[in-house]
Design goal:
The protein has 14 helices and 18 strands. It is α/β, with parallel strands linked by helices and 435 residues long. The strands form 3 sheets. It has a 7-stranded mixed β-sheet. A 7-stranded mixed β-sheet has the order 14-13-12-15-16-17-18, with helices on both faces. Strand 5, helix 4 and strand 6 form a beta-alpha-beta unit. It binds ligand DWN and zinc ion (ZN).
């Protein structure tokens, strides 16, 4: 049994105020092999708290990173075209804005299968990936991306510095939220970055998580949930500055990219975002106080929606064997009684079952083979990409449902210029909320 932490992961403060409990849930990416269906699955408390000292939102129970990201980690970044486009744009912008070349070094923390670093390597820019997940790292190395297969922290940074390495750019996308020991992680970035270097950190914005009731993005892999305010406080503890911020409403339900570095050069955008967070109350406990009630109302509405449609004789499947889908189904008690199967493009997930609820995972072709009446999009953050991809399913009369911001039947998504997805940019996707 993992005991609850009593000190904040970022500042060590002891005033952690819980505001949401999703019960004991299985590990979100630990899909189950059919042979193991009778074996007991590990379950851990999933409880979220707010730190009164530094405003960091965080879960209270640690699952060992080895268990989370090494033993049975199935997430590969290269199964989303939208994410690949986003990553390529990021790399192109950095190459130009930082004047990167053959004498530069770009280091990515949690480099997965090399999906991002390949954009630099193709331009002859030296890169180094660091990722503990062996299968993903093997794919990166096979594709010519040098990768250290280990967890990043201050010891790794000191070792690299001792080898004469300094990073001109450090990229940390969807990893700073996945780290229990933030002192070592951020201390390592401070150690490894060149004096005039740039660190870009990308994670979902806790403001949108609360605004759009994205409770399913809470799972044991995500130890922390960030705001500009909490990132600023965390960076300052390690001699770094939060200098700029970019907002991507259509990525993972609303993502911020924070630009940090050893030299202070704070932009107006940072001031605007921190002022907004202050004005909306993101920096205080009251902002989160009713989140638990809203989540329960969302869960009740989703169950009612599916039960009602099932009772009307409709068949229902799901799309996206996503980590967030595991939280959603387990927190809502939705299983094979309501869903016949889940489809996913990630071949590593085919033939497995969703953690806890054991809904089978099949290739996306199953949608046309079975033509279920309804498909609940568990990977709602990629709704537009998925709906566009499954146009034939829709043409044949299929209906997509989304669970957030409120359970609803998804009308034809309105494609905004940069692409839009449910959650962070719900206004771009016309939904008809079914109460
Ligand atoms: O932080 C994390 C986020 C960034 O990604 C990781 N800890 C784990 C992972 O969370 P997730 O599994 O909820 O992320 P995704 O990327 O929203 O999951 C998408 C799932 O949907 C993947 O299994 C791939 C699949 N997919 C698909 O089958 N067809 C995705 C797209 C875009 C598609 O077209
Ligand atoms: Zn704190």
């Amino acid at each position: 049994m993992t005991a609850a932490i009593t000190a904040c992961r970022a500042c060590g403060g002891e005033t952690l105020r819980p505001f949401l409990s999703l019960g004991k849930t299985p590990l979100a990416d630990a899909l189950v092999r059919p042979d193991d269906i009778d074996a007991a699955e590990q379950r851990f408390p999933l409880e979220v708290a707010f730190c009164e000292e530094c405003t960091l939102v965080q879960i209270l129970h640690d699952v060992p990173p080895q268990t989370l990201f090494v033993d049975n980690y199935l997430y590969f970044s290269s199964f989303s075209d939208h994410l690949l486009e986003h990553s390529r744009a990021h790399a192109t912008n950095l190459i130009t804005s930082r004047g990167l070349g053959e004498d530069s070094l770009v280091v990515e923390l949690a480099s997965n299968d090399g999906y991002l670093l390949k954009n630099f390597a193709e331009q002859g820019i030296p890169v180094l990936g660091i990722d503990p997940a062996p299968d993903q790292a093997a794919v990166a190395i096979e594709n010519g991306i040098p990768t250290l297969v280990e967890f990043f922290g201050v010891e790794v940074a000191q070792r690299l510095r001792a080898e004469g390495k300094q990073a001109d750019v450090i990229i940390a996308n969807n990893v700073m939220a996945h780290v229990p020991d933030l002192d070592s992680f951020v201390g390592g970035m401070a150690e490894l970055i060149a004096d005039d270097g740039l660190i870009t950190v990308e994670n979902p914005w806790v403001h949108d998580l609360v605004q759009h009731a994205e409770f399913d993005t809470i799972y044991h892999e995500h130890f922390s949930y960030y705001s500009c305010t909490s990132v600023h406080n965390l960076m300052r503890r390690h001699g770094l500055f939060l200098n700029d911020v970019e907002y991507f409403p259509d990525l993972h339900g609303g993502t911020l990219r924070w630009h940090c570095g050893p030299v202070e050069d704070v932009s107006d955008r940072v001031r605007e975002f921190t002022a907004l967070e202050e004005a909306e109350g993101v920096t205080g406990f009251a902002y989160y106080a009713d989140f638990g009630e809203r989540v329960q109302a969302n869960i009740d509405a989703l169950r009612a929606l599916l039960i009602e449609r099932r009772a009307a004789g409709r068949t229902i499947a799901a799309y996206g064997a996503a980590a967030k889908g595991s939280t959603l189904l387990n927190a809502s008690g939705i299983g094979t009684d309501l869903l016949d199967f889940v489809v996913d493009r990630n071949v590593h997930k085919h033939g497995l079952m969703m953690p806890g609820v054991h809904v089978p995972v099949r290739p996306t072709e199953a949608l046309l083979e079975e033509q279920p009446d309804d498909v609940l999009i568990l990977a709602w953050n990629f709704a537009d990409e998925i709906v566009a991809q499954q146009a034939e399913y829709v043409r044949r009369g299929g209906t997509f449902l989304v669970p957030v911001p409120t359970p609803a039947e998804l009308q034809q998504a309105v494609q905004s210029p940069g692409g839009s997805n449910v959650g962070g940019a719900a206004e771009d996707t016309q939904t008809e909320a079914l109460s």
